[in-house]
Amino acid sequence: SYLWKVWEGHRMAQLCCEVAGAIILEDTYRTRLQMLTKYFRAKFSSIHCCYAIKYTFCEMLNLLISILNFWLMDVVFNGFWHKYIHALAAIPVYDWQLWNMMSSRVFPKVAKCEMFVYGPSGSPNVLDILCVLPLNIL
Length: 138
Hints:
Structural component of the gap junctions. Keywords: Cell junction, Cell membrane, Gap junction, Ion channel, Ion transport, Membrane, Transmembrane, Transmembrane helix, Transport. 59% of the residues lie in helices and 13% in strands. By secondary structure, it is α+β, with helices and mostly antiparallel strands. It is elongated and about 80 Å long. The chain starts with a helix and ends in a 6-residue tail after the last strand.
């Protein structure tokens, strides 16, 4: 994000400053649109080519960072994606039992909870109970 902001230099914001507004006059819109078309039709191919190369480089860098995040998450969380890929593979073949079993391993729907209650004498009692996690049941 930082690299693209430095390279881009708010060029798109400057080019579209009055065209992207919610309420603009028709004359202003037409003149800005004509200026934009003249700008893009002009022979600035080296500028546009450099702009496109920088944009493509930033997108490739984003892809590399995403892959690195997947790999790091897999290492840190002890094979997270290796377990979850089996759950995703069950969806196209409509094997909902396998989907439920594999996704429950990755995203549990039930967990052990401790509930603190106070008895009639005022002393705390700890109860071990099963908690249903409603956000994971879709």
